[in-house]
Amino acid sequence: MTDLTLTMKYRPNQRVDMSPITCDKLAGLELAEIAAIELQNGKRKLRVDELFSISGSDVGKIHINNSFYKLDYIGRGLEGGSIRVTGDVGAYLAMDMRAGEITVSGNVGIYAACQMKNGLLQVLGDVGDFLGSALPGNKKGIQGGTVLIKGNAGDRVGDHMRRGMILIEGDTGDYCGARMTAGTIAVMGKTGRNIGYAMRRGTLLLWQQPKVPVTFGDCGTHTFSFLPMLFKAMAKFDSKFSDSSQHFNRVHRYGGDLAGMGRGEILVRAGNA
Amino acid sequence: MIINGVLIDHTFAEAFPMKATRVIITAQTEQWAFNAAKSMTGFATSVIGCGCEADIERYLKPSETPDGRPGVSAMLFTMGAKSLVKQLETRAGQSVLTSPTSALFSGIDGGIRIPLGKNLRYFGDGFQTSKMINDKRYWRIPVMDGEFLVEETTGQVNAIGGGNLLILAESEIDALEACEKAVLEMRKVPNVILPFPGGVVRSGSKVGSKYPALTASTNDAFCPTLKGITKSELSPEIESVMEIVIDGLTEADIKKAMKVGMETFCSIGAYNGVKRISAGNYGGKLGPYHFHLQEIMND
């Protein structure tokens, strides 16, 4: 069986809600039934076969081809299988995802991996603001799984993050790790202002020296034996994070945010601090 | 059965079900991992008086440990699950948490999960933090030399305790040297420990005593100095008897260790003073596991 491939025929003016297209929701459906699924498009609905040409039949492996930045909610609540996207995608990618794998070749909009529970999300391009965060008003952002971003990320990465691992090869915007409750955010590039703002617990692991807020205390330089284990866990990904020359176990530690609970930490690769 | 002049008795070792766990202790150097493991498995020769039986299983190369540092694996055996949890927690807290540069990990992935760092973490007084790595939770507890890293749980499995070999020799030195060689070989077998000092026991016991307060007393039938005044199991040329007790995760592990031990004794031979191999049992009425010496040698 070949992957179920949905190739976009045209680019609609309004945004498209792609949440009905996940491996688990399509399981057991005939191609005709998949073609007849209606997708919300602005205030109207579009049949899948109106928007996409369909080929292949393996619903456990979905390929969305020729995607663009108005396709929202791709992989929402995914419970298994894989979704591969060629092109850009819109907002809420992998929101509430529970298992499986999503890979995007292009750039991604806001709220990617929002409230994600488990699984793996890989983005080869850049992502917008609120990566791995909670929806406004909610208290729990990403709660498990791994997010790997090869490009840059916007503001508020991991806002209200609860668990899991966010790996960013590029730079991040402001407020990275804000209001974090637990988990790990690793950033190889630069970070913006107010890093770890109101952070409660969790780890921000940085390769570059950030502008550390005054509400973080300098705890000095230390060697941590959990870091090699963390890097070992990252080694399985096709990423700079698996490159052993990028690994270290000696870091400068800043504890905070002392304006709040203050049990979080910013760890900066020693030598760069 | 006689091999190289060594008589192997037609008897069996009687063993009992136990609960066991394995932990991996790492440190900056192998010596410091050993120091922690030695302390953790100290005073743990017999459940009768120590609460558990424990020993170092083997040394681990950095490539074999979770954090890539030199390490040691150690196993603890108890008669019940509750006592295992208690012994593990006490010993981990007093001997590993306290040992410089140490870290402590689960050595058994399956089994029933029992606390390892789950309660030790409170030593951190609120400064402890957890880290989930590959679906396992670890606790980072700040201590004076840096940080104590400990896995939250380890695995408890069903196991067997009380496998044993008795070596009967012409002299004390013959018995001791033969035991040293056997212990060296038996400790290469995975999943077993020899919990007594140096792996050897000289005070094998029988059930009961003339003193009502005691549940066990000296095994007079194998005491060479009592040959003439008790119902002895010893022939005139036997001057010394020593025992190797084996605890293992499975019957197969104990059998393998016993076979390695007997083969070592036989290779030393009667010419060098090793006259006979026997085993301790209670008539087969107490323990469900019977390790027949001759059957093991024929396997």
Feature tags:
heterodimer, A: 273 residues, mainly beta, 13-stranded mixed beta sheet, two-stranded parallel sheet, 4 helices, 34% strand, elongated, B: 299 residues, alpha+beta, Alpha-Beta Plaits, 2 domains, 15-stranded mixed beta sheet, two-stranded antiparallel sheet, 6 helices, 17 strands
How many domains comprise the coordinates of chain B?
A: 2
Number of helices of chain A: 4
Unreliably modeled segments of chain B: none
Biggest sheet of chain A, strands in spatial order? 5-1-6-8-9-10-11-12-13-14-17-16-15
Can you name the CATH architecture of the largest domain in chain B? 2-Layer Sandwich
Largest sheet: number of strands, sense, barrel closure of chain A: 13 strands, mixed
Helix-strand pattern of chain B, N to C?
EEEHHEEHEEEEEEHEEEEHEEH
Supply Rg of chain A: 19 Å
Largest interface (C-beta under 8 Å) = A-B, 19 and 19 residues
Helix/strand class of chain A: mainly beta
Percentage of residues in helical conformation of chain A: under 10%
Q: If helices are DSSP runs of H or I spanning 4 or more residues, what is the number of helices of chain B?
A: 6
Distance between the termini of chain A: 52 Å
Strands of chain B, count = 17
Strand content of chain A: 25-35%
How would a crystallographer describe the biggest sheet of chain B?
A: 15 strands, mixed
Beta content of chain B comes to: 35-45%
Portion of residues within helices of chain B? 10-25%
